[in-house]
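Could you join me in thinking about how sequence relates to backbone shape in a protein? We need material for that, and I hope you will provide a protein of your own picking. Label the sequence line and the structure token line clearly, so we can match residues to local backbone shapes. Would you write everything just below, so we can both look at the same thing?
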Amino acid sequence: MMHTGYLSVAPDGSPVHSFHPVPSAWCCASHVLGLPLETDRLGAAVHEAGHLVAALVGGIHVIDVGLTSEEALFPCGPIHGVSGVTQTGPMAVHPDRYLTMLAAGELAHQRWLRDSGLFTPAKAWAVERGAVDDMGKAVGVLREYFPGIPDDGYRQRFWQYRPAAETLLATHWGRVLNVAGSLGSRGHLGGDEAAALARLPNPPEPASDL
């Protein structure tokens, strides 16, 4: 049975559909997470390392991975945070592997929260909200294979990849942490360099059709 998720309304009136329960009161995900910048940076590094290791295991070429510190002034006050990007080559594997890779980033972040003694339901929700770009990519892939479904339905389908991602992370958690340590301190790793840290081969980039 599919997890139906939780529905609520954001402060700006837009709908919010999430896997984790929505906090009773919130202004933005960054303030709900509420971590010091350096702690947040390590969480972001683990998130990207989760993507990277899942990509390598799934046969997806990794170009590079990087972190960016961000500051902004929201209506609810100033925020700081760290975002990351794992850049992969063209998808040349079964979509299930790509969707598992997308799910692995948030789930690595969630496991890091638990292992660090930082986990709360509200922080879990904030980490999920921080992975909105991953969700958007997943919905885009699923639209190609299951046209005509409302976005809430696509989110529910994507959530079905969480168990596979959790199993992959449990098997390769040491590799995730090894990559995250270097990424957190350096801020950027080339794909081959990151693969070496993970002790996994970086699959070759698919040849261009041109």
Summary: The chain has a mean pLDDT of 93. The helical segments are 29-33, 37-57, 95-115, 121-130, 132-145, 151-159, 162-186, 191-198. The chain has eight helices and five strands. The CA atoms of residues 111 and 119 lie 9 Å apart.
